[in-house]
Design brief:
By secondary structure, the protein is of the alpha/beta class. The protein has 12 helices and 19 strands. Strands 1, 12, 13, 14, 15, 16, 17, 18 and 19 form a 9-stranded mixed β-sheet that branches. An 8-stranded parallel β-barrel has the order 2-3-4-5-6-9-10-11, surrounded by 5 helices. The chain has a two-stranded antiparallel ribbon with strand order 7-8. Helix 3 links the parallel strand 2 and strand 3. Helix 5 packs across helix 7 and helix 8 runs parallel beside helix 10.
Length: 400
Amino acid sequence: MTARAADRARYDRATAHLDAPVAIVDLDAFDANADDLVRRAGGKPIRVASKSVRCRALLERVLSRDGFQGIMSFTLAESLWLARSGFDDVLLAYPSADRAGYAELAADPKLAAAVTVMVDDVAQLDLIDAARGDGREVVRVCLELDTSLRLLGGRVRVGARRSPLHSPAEVAELARAVARRPGFRVVGIMAYEGHIAGVGDAIAGRPLRSRAVRLMQAAARRELAERRAAVVRAVRAVVPDLEFVNGGGTGSVQHTAAEDAVTEIAAGSGLYVPRLFDNYTSFSGRPAALFAQPVVRRPGVGVVTVLGGGYPASGAAGRDRLPVPYLPEGLRYDPQEGPGEVQTPLLGSAADDLLIGDKVWFRHAKAGELCERFDVLHLVAGDAVTDTVPTYRGEGRTFL
């Protein structure tokens, strides 16, 4: 029996009493992935990206482990909810236009002490001030650095379009603007190198493209390490008591941790290890989050149909954004239909061994987005479900 076949047998036994659709997290794999992230971080704390987990119980589980400290959230409403739930170090990773949320933040000492907001433009400070109302708490601010690699005098750009702040001078100027403004305090810098941390460099069947990605990422790491260090020096000249410099992501943990200027690493997807993280030379993890759909039809030889399963991930549309049938091995989509909203035909010899009601296990393309489809996660240890915990959705919290 292969390791994957053994996993399928465990998952089927653990969930035999549960009807599909069902979502699980394999705790053995989750904990092993957490240990690997800590090893790769080399002693620097890891801030957990909540959008890649979207389950309070699992956020609590990982934050109870040595090597993890703080949450990186994705909306202001989520940040405030987490802070009220007892998480005392929440960094909002994206600017917000949530005026009601800012009014709550500025009026509550506990929330203001626990939540740090993201800023890359003076106009965002104006919005926060206009939303304050009577709230006079000091708002903790993190400045975001654009990490993109710019070539040929800026005519070529590699990396996500995030912050407009690219140079040390630009970040330092915003730091001075915040420092001059009552009611705000710069406490951190963030720089997310998604073109390094979130792009696989070992693409199956694409050796030339894989080599090109590795060359690009090596050049981007060198350029960013030098520029990030200069940014930190420039900001510390304005804000000597800067609390943290956050960088990285699951795919770049060890590289980012090696930079002296960085004080903490962000990671989250590496806990679940969705399919988009199969194509990396820098690390390999164990798939921990899966979902199962039931077989509801057997249309013919070499084909079964499962209920639903059309759960595409965000990003540029393409096959890499689709979940993949994972267990049993050897199933594939019908290219004429793909994964459907209500039904999904699957082809392959493994289909002939499946009966009506059997489970087919899938891996989502991305990490936390799976939780937007399920109210609960069943936590599996060995071949048993040891707990069932709500996702954000299961707690009535859908933030985006």
